[in-house]
Amino acid sequence: MLQWFRTLSLRNKLVLTILVCLVLPSIVSMNVSNFFTRDAVRSQVADSARQSMRITSQIVTGQLKNMVYMMNFIQFDEELQKPILSLGHVDETSTIGDIFQAKLTINKRISTVMNPLGNMNVTLLLPNGQYVASYTTINFDPKSFLSKDWMKEVNQIKGYNVHWIGTEFNYNSESTQPYVLAAAKPLGLNGTTYGYVIVGLELSVLQNLFAQYKENETMVIIDENGRILVDQDTSRIGTQFANFDQLPSEEGSSFVKVAGEEYIMQSNQISSNWKLVSMAPYKSAAQQIESFRKTDFLIQLFFLILFAIVLLYVVRTLTKPIAKLVQTVVRIESGQLSERSNISGGDEVGRLGYVFDRMIDRIELTLFENKREQELKRKAELAMLQAQINPHFLFNVLNSIRLKIMMKGDEENAELISSLSALLRMTINRNNEYITLHEEIGINEHYVRLLNSRHGDRVVLRVSAASDTLLIQIPRFLLQPLIENAYIHGLKSKAGEITIVSRIAEDGRLQVEIQDSGVGMTPERLLTLRNHLEATPTTSVVVEASSPSLSGIGIHNVFERLRMIYGLRFDYEIESNLGRGTQIILRFPQQPEKEV
Known about the structure:
- This protein is of the alpha+beta class.
- It is built from 15 helices and 17 strands.
- It is an enzyme of class 2 (transferase).
- It is a multi-pass membrane protein.
- Residues 316-368 form the HAMP domain.
- Keywords: ATP-binding, Cell membrane, Kinase, Membrane, Nucleotide-binding, Phosphoprotein, Transferase, Transmembrane, Transmembrane helix, Two-component regulatory system.
């Protein structure tokens, strides 16, 4: 990671650092805020749920109180006491008119109180089998209540308590509701039960209330065993409440997990045996608060992005001149010395660009002057090499020609004089620094002819030059010092062969080879010669003239000229085997204008 960061540009490093310093505190702050506000949010959500539960519980409790009120009204209303007692004493002597009149009086009185209270089914059941019902009894006989299992528990009630039966099948054939929520109480007088009141509340009243909750929320009424008495889904009535074992031990709320999702569970005791239970997903209950926090996050994100855009623009404006300066440096490094940054301004970067351009101007001027000095130096070297023709050698050659001419007048001497004339003419003429390879080979043929005339030993010069190399321009007097070394130190001034080979190398450069059939060199002497040729001109290297090797002085001068002219595009090889001769291979560009 650190290595990757180091490879980034200055602009990217600056942007990345600022963004990290900007985004990281926001993320940390948000997480810390979530951590410290989580309990507060949960408490707020729980309070909101309890408030909603309290309202629902009051409505449900009100319905149950209406049922109790209806039963107490029948028990304690004075206007109902006489007709109820009269109906309870009906026997074989009672007329149908008396029975009808008593039931009619009871019905009217009950209807007066029951109608404002909602959808209730009220049954007044007397031990002698007489009854009064607020619903049609065509398909149902109220006397069947006496055989219900819960009637035993009703008979055990003392005082003015009520027995909450639970959910019963609806016995009102005119109603579309399949169930009613039922309760009953005995009617007693002086310790004697003279009747029973059974009140059934149709579940639609409570189901419509529960339907106000969302689909993923649950609102039910259960008994003490966890059996569902009221639910929006009628099919679940009478089944076991799935999360009964997770109910809070007391009235209140708790957080439970169901199928991996967190819920707020609340319960309120609405009767002695019944509880109102609600379950709501925590995420849904906290939606409003989460929406507020999400909005706050989006606002922060918007300003963060806006700041990042402004930051990128400012950083780009500040670092663009630096990037331009870097590009200019790269192009200059590749050899384009005419490139300039052209950066201006009054700040530090502007002054740096101005100073950099002026520095490149001075460097370019210095290089131009150095190049000019090198050209003058090469011309001076050429003049010096051209002047290195040994005057004694020329004197001795002329004397030899003179003696031969005196002794016999043949054409051979005429050729010698012609060769000497051509060699002197080329030596004296310094107008052209470069000549063709063909001309350079011709000069060396004249030179070898003069050698043979002076020493008497026949040195054979063999030339194998490719036709496409003959017109290539090469520095003047490039081969003469090498031929001289091959004759003096390779052939030991005796008869032998010297071969000149030229060809175009694979990389397009001219390759010239000079090989002799002389004594060669030992590996040690060859290594010494190579070290001498690689040494700087100021390095003092002593080479024994009597050693069986090339002297290295003339060769060193040739190699230094080629290095100055062609630079790194010039290279060479020297191979030698003792008793088998020495070979020198030169490689350099074909055209002088390709100098480095």
